Amino acid sequence: MAIEVQGKTIETDANGNLVSPQDWNRDVAEKLAAEEGIELTQEHWDVLEYLRDEYLNNNGNQPMERQINKDMGKRWGKKISSKDLYKLFPKAPSKQGNRVAGLPFIARKGGY
Q1: Which residues contact 97 (CB under 8 A, 6 or more apart)?
Q2: Which candidate, 19, 20, 60, 96, has a CA 20 to 30 Å from the CA of 27?
Q3: What percent of the chain has pLDDT over 90?
Q4: Is the pTM value of this prediction over 0.90?
Q5: Is the pLDDT of residue 112 over 60?
């Protein structure tokens, strides 16, 4: 599978995740989000940047939803619930968020 962004073909796996996280940029994120039916807001970008930072700078860490919830609450300076994150990424912040962030598919159950 593949997507086209600005005339460039970018390979994706069977789940729609990028094969190479280095192919990701804001235009790719916009395209992936559009395919998911998501219009990116600043809160989306905060989550995407957090997920990419964890993966790229923390030994390939892909946090579960509980950790995303805690860390985004700290970043935003308010208490948030899982419901808040699911409003941003209805098909699971740790899976759909990773997909839009250009990260590998993660096969696990549950968010805690």
Answers
A1: 47, 48, 51, 68, 85, 88, 89
A2: 60
A3: 93
A4: yes
A5: no
Which residues are CB-contacts of 63 (< 8 A; sequence separation ≥ 6)? 51, 54, 71, 94
**At a CB cut-off of 8 Å and minimum separation 6, what does 60 contact?**
none
d(Cα 2, Cα 18) in Å, to the nearest integer?
A: 8
Token pair listed for 95? 């899976």
Quick check: 28 and 102 in contact, CB under 8 A?
Answer: yes
Structure tokens at 51: 């997920």
The amino acid that residue 108 corresponds to is R
What's the one-letter identity of residue 9?
A: T
CA 19 – CA 41 distance, rounded (Å) = 25
Per-residue pLDDT reduced to its tens digit, 32-49: 999 999 999 999 999 999
Helices 65-76 and 42-57, interaxial angle, to 10°? 120
> Do 74 and 91 contact (CB within 8 A), yes or no?
no
Q: What is the largest CA-CA distance in the chain?
A: 41
